[in-house]
Protein 1
Amino acid sequence: MTTIENDVPNEKPPNENPIVLRLSDVSFGTSGESGIRLNRLTMTLRQGDLVMIHLDRSVKVRETVSLFEGLVQPFEGTVRFEQNDWLGEDFDRHFKMRSRIGRVFENDAWIQNLNVAENVTLARRHHRIEPESIDTDLTAWRTRFDVENVLDQRPAFVEPSTLQVYQWIRSLISKPRLLLLERPMQSVSPSRYTTLVDTLNEVRMTGTAVVWFTSNPVDASDQIAAPQFHYMLANGQLVEREGVSKP
Amino acid sequence: MPHARERSTLLRWFLLTGPARTSEFLGEQFLSRLGTIISILAMLWATVRLAIRPACWTQPVRSVFARQLLFSGVDGVIVALRFGAAVGVLIIVQAALWVDALGVTTDVIAPILWRAIVRELAPLLACLVVIGRSGIAISTELATMLVNHEVEVLDAQGIDPMTALVMPRVLSMVISIFCLAIITATSMIVTGYVIGWSVGAIHVPWTTFLNGILREFNSLDLLFFVSKTSIAGAFAGAICCIDGLSVGSSVTDVPRVSSRSGIRALTAVFVVSAVLSVLIYGRLLVFKIL
C-alpha cells in the first residue's frame, strides 16, 4: 500500500507487503520555477504498488527521481529503499541498491559512445545479473514491445520514439524491485500504452513497485491493475487526485 | 606635509600591507597546488584499489579498458614510430657534430646518446604522443559526458563512474606510455643507426652497435625507465580525468577544460621526470646532490 502523508489523511486499508521505498519527512526543492518542491513528505511504497504522480508539463522531475535513488540528498528527512538508507560513504552498498532500480529518464538518457544494445544491457552485464540469458531476454523484450532492431546503432542516430521504447526495455531487463518512470509515454505512440501497462501489471505481480510521473491525464486508466494511487503536486505538497485513485 | 603622509602610507604598504598580501597570495597558491596534488594522489590511490579488485573488472569495464588501450596505445604506434624516427635523425646529426667538434670517436658519444634516449627522450616523446592523442580526448569525453548527464545515467544504474570511466582510462594511459616509450626508443636507435651508417658516421655493423648499446644498459636505467613512464602516465591520466570531471554545467566549458588538462598533464610529466631524476640518479642537472 502506498501512503502519502502531508496534509492528506490516509484511510486506506492496511497492506502487509514488504516496503520497497519509504520517504520520511522529506523536504527537498530544486531551483527555478520548473523544479519540484517537497515539504516534509512521508510516503511508503510497497511491493506491487503503482503510484502515478500527475504534474504540470513544465515541471522537471529528474532531480526528484534522483532523490529516490540516493543520487541527491534531501534537505531533511530520510529516503529508504528496501529498508536501507542512502546515507554514509558505503558507496558499494549504494551501487548494489541502485542495481535493483530501473529508471526511464525524461531526457539525456543514453551513453552516447555505446550502441543501443550496450546501453540497454549495461547495468545487467555490469552487475552480472543472469549474464547467460541477457541476449535472449533482450530479444524477448524487443519482440514483446515490437520495436525495430537498432541495437547496433548509436543513440544519436535512432529516432526518439524508438529510443524511448528501448528505455522501457533497459529499465525492465535487470529485473528491478522498483521502477521509476519519468513521463514514459513521451515521444511514443499512444498505441503502445496498453503494452506498457500490461508489462507493468505483470512485473508488479512479481513484487516490483512503480512510481510513474506523468503530465498526461490519459495515462491514468482502468487498464492499470490495483493497487494504483494517483497524486498531484499542489503548493509543494502531494495531494490525492480525485476521481482516479483506486485503493 | 602631504609628502610626509604619502611617505608614511608608502612605508606602511611596504612594511605591512605588501608583505601581508604577498604572504596571502603565496599561501593561497600553495594551498591550491597542495589540494591539486592531493586530489591527483587520491584518484591514483582509488584507481589502484579498484584495479586490484577482480570484482571491478566486469565485462563493460573490460570493454572500456580494451577500447581505451586500442586508442591510446595501438593507434599511437605509427605516431610514436614517426616521432622516434625523426628524433633519431636529429640525434645522429647532433652526434656527428659532436664527434667533429670534440674530436672523439662514436664509442664515446654512443653511450651518452643511449642514456639520453632511454632516460629522457623516449619517455617524454611517448608522453607527448599519448597526452596529445588521448589525454585531451579523455578530458573532452568525460567533460562532455558530465555535461550531457551521462555520468548520472551510469550512477543511476548502480555503476560506479570511478570504476567504469576513470580506472580503465588511467591504467590504459600508463600501459600505453610504457609500451610507446619502448617503441619510440627502438625507432630512434634503428633510424639513428640506418642514417648514421648510410652517411658514413657509423662504421660498425648493426650487431656490434646493438651490443654496445645493450652493454650500457644498467638496472638504474631500467628502474628509471619503468618508474618514469608509469608514474608520469598515471599522473597524466589522473589529471585528464580530474579536469574532465570538474567541468561546469555548460558545454562551452569543455574546450577550455580540455586544453587546460593537456598543459597540466604535460607539466606534471616534466615535474615527475625531474623529481625522479633527482631521486634515482641523485643529480639535479649536472650537480650531484644526493
Note: The longest strand of chain B covers residues 283-284.
Protein 2
Amino acid sequence: MNPLVTLRIALRAVLRNKMRSFLTTLGIIIGVAAVIAMMAIGAGAKAQVEAAFSAMGTNLLIILPGSTTSGGSFGGFGSMPTLTWDDMAAIKDEVGTVHLVAPSLRSTQSLVSEEMNWTTSVTGTTPEYFQIRNWPMAQGAGFSQQDVDSGTKVVVLGQTVVDRLYGTSANPVGQSVRIGNTPFTIVGVADKKGQSPTGQDYDDASFIPSTTFAHRIQGGLGKFLIGQIYVQATSSETTQRALADIKTLLRDRHHLPPGADDDFSIRNLAEIAGAQQQGTETMTTLLASVAAVSLIVGGIGIMNIMLVSVTERTREIGVRMAIGAKPMSILLQFLIEALVLSIAGGLIGVSLGVGVAWWLAAKFRWPMAIQVDVIVISVGFSALVGIVFGLYPARKASQLDPIDALRYE
Amino acid sequence: MADPLIAVHDVQKIYKTGDVEVHALGGVSLEIVPGEFVAIMGASGSGKSTLMNILGCLDRPTLGTYMLAGRHVAKMNRDELAETRNEVLGFVFQNFNLLARTSALENVELPLIYRGVRAKERHRRAGAALARVGLGQRLDHTPAQLSGGQQQRVAIARALVGEPKVILADEPTGNLDSRTSTEVMGLFQELGSAGITVVLVTHEPDIAEYASRVVVVKDGLIREDTRQTPRVAAPPPKAGES
C-alpha cells in the first residue's frame, strides 16, 4: 500500500476530530516547547558565562604572590611580596608554553579632571596586558613599551571613568588628568568590556605604565613585584602545562625544598570558567529532563486517544479488512496517525519553544542561543514517542478478528 | 458443467466456549460454478452466517476443505486471506458498511487502494463501477447524503470495482424497503448474467426467489439444495436516473 495514501488517510482521521487531536498533541507541544526553551535558556546562560570569562582574557593564568606567616597566622595570598620582576622575565623567557606575560600592580586612586573627580582603580602594567585581555582601544593608541621603559606619565582610561569625568560621548584623548597630584596625559580609552562574572565593572579602571606606577604611586620596592602576573598560554590545550611549568620554575627560583608549601599561587581561569559552565550545564540538563518527562506523559496521552480511536473505528477496521486490508496495512494506518499527531505536536512545540526562548532572551537580555540540533532531536524524540506509544494501539487494531470487528456495534 | 469456483467439502466449524463445544457447521459440502446466483437461506442460529464467513475467507474451517478458485483456503495465512478477499471476492453487507464522511468515489476506491492501484486508474475504475450501479452522477456524495438504496448501490460498486469472481452479500436487502430491494436484486441478477457468481444470505423467501439456486441451512447442515427459475426483477434504473 502506498505510504502517501496511508498518510492521507491518517491526516483525514486526525483532522476529523480537530479539537481532540489538538488536545492530544498538547502534551507533546508543551513537552517539546519546554525542552527547546530550557535548552535555549541554558545555552544562553552558558554563552553568557563564556563571554564573561573570555572578557577576562583567553587562556589566562594569574600568578599571585605568597602568604605571610607570622606567629602562626596566615596572611593570605598576596600579603607578602614573593614575586620578582626577574621571576616574570624568567616565565616569559624559559616557559615555552607561555605566549605573553604582563604585571598587574593595583591601587585605588582619585582621578581629577578639570571639573570632576572619580575614585577608581589604577593598574600599573605593560602593553601586553591589553593583548592578554583581548582589550582593544576605542580611542587613542594606548601606551607603548617605550612609555614603560622611560616611565612616562600617560594613562589609559576605562569607559566608565571617561563617562564620569568627561561625559558619555567625550573623547578625552590628549587631555590631562591628575592621579593624586601628578598630571597624566590621556593616551587612550579602552573599549567597553562590561561586567566580570562576579558583577564587577571592568570599565571602571585606569591603566598606567608599570614603571610609572612603581615610581609615582607605590614607591619603588626594587626587585619585588607588588601585584599579580598575568600569563597567557599559547593555546587552551597548553594552559594546564604552562601552569605546571611555571610552578616548577618558580619553586626552583624561590629555592623551595620538596614538601614545602608554594609561596605563590596560580589561578587557572579556564578551570574556574569550566566549573561555572558545568554548573549551568547541570541545571540545563535537569530542567530539560523534567521537560522530557512531560514528553513521555504526552506520549501516554497519544496512546490513550489512539486506543479510543481504534475502539471507535472497530467497524471501519472490519470493513477495511473484509475488502482486503492486510494486518500490516491496518497497523501502518494507525501508527502513521499516531506519528502525525506526535510530529505535528513536535513542530508546533518547536515554534512555541523558540518563541518562548526568544521572549525570555529579550526580557532578561540573555544571549539567544537556539541550537538546531536540539530542535532536530526534540522533533525526532516526539516522533519516537509517537511510534512507541502508537505501536500498541496500532497492533491491537491490526490483530482484530474481521468477523468480530464487522459485528461490533 | 464447468469446474466449480467454490468447492466446500465436509466443512465443520466448532467453537469452544469453556468446556462446551458448539458445532456451528457439522459437515457441509457445496459446489458453486461460475455465474451461479445462489441464495443461502436459514433462520438465525442455523449456521448460515458461519458458512458465509468461511466462504468469505473471513474465517477458516475447523475441519474439511474449502477450495476457492482452485486454492486451498484452510492453508492460507492472514495476509493471503486478505489478498484473496481483495482479488477474488466482493462483499456487500446488510448495513452497507460504507466509511462515513467519505465520498462515494473514495469508498469505492478502497479495495483498489489496498491492491496498490495508482490514483488515476483508481478514479477511472471507481467512476465506472458507480456508473454501472446507476450512481455516475453522485461521485462526491457522502453516505449521509445518500438514501439507503443508493448507499447499498455504492457498496455494490465497491464490491464490483476489483472485478471479483464472487460477490458475497449478507442480507443485502435487510435494511431496505421492498421497492429498493427489488432494484438491488435486479442489479445482482445483472451481475450474474455478466458472469459474476453471486452468493446471497437471506432469511426472506421472496428475496431468495430471485436466485437461480436456493440452499437451505438448518442446525449446521444443508437440508435442501434446489435449482429454480429465478423471478425476474424490474430492470435496474439507468445511470443517472435516480
Note: The first strand of chain A starts at residue 60 and ends at 65.
